[in-house]
Amino acid sequence: MRKVIVQTFLTLDGVMQAPGGPDEDTSGGFAHGGWSVNYWDDRMGEVMGAAMGVPFDLLLGRRTYDIFAAYWPNASEEEGAKPLNDATKYVASRSNPRLEWERSVLIDGDAAEGVAALKQQDGPELQVHGSGNLIQTLLRSNLVDEFRLWVFPVVIGSGRRLFAEGTVPTGLRLADSTTSTTGVVMGTYLPAGEIHLGSFA
Asked: How high does pLDDT run on average in the chain?
């Protein structure tokens, strides 16, 4: 059975929109694109290299697919392009887009049902990058096996959030964590079932 792994950059207030550049995603009038760039250090490179150094396929929403497809096919191996270009890209979209990036496959029909079927197949892990709307669909259907959340020491106040309104309440267990020299906390979380409520009174 294949695992679905959500790998996401977040601000301290939970924004995941456009971490990589000013023009990456300006939807909704978002004007803070590129907020993650100046925090990068060697430790972050090591952690990302380990994540991208295992066999994986990509599971992407349409918006993130378009952003990736516009950049990575023309990027160099030094920039980390090869694993992304070599991966199969499974794309969830309500339309019938032209998927011109090599090894791209459209998930037909209901996205949750399509991902559930992919998980039952043999193959490498399915990494989700960006793709906020798709992640909400995966969460509602209990399809996420692992979260790799990188929390940056910056607060923006607006923009698309990972855990938006309507997220299904669930407990998580911290499986691993490390911190960059710039204060980025990189945590790996596993689903831990229902939230257990209590009282200090």
From this structure: 93
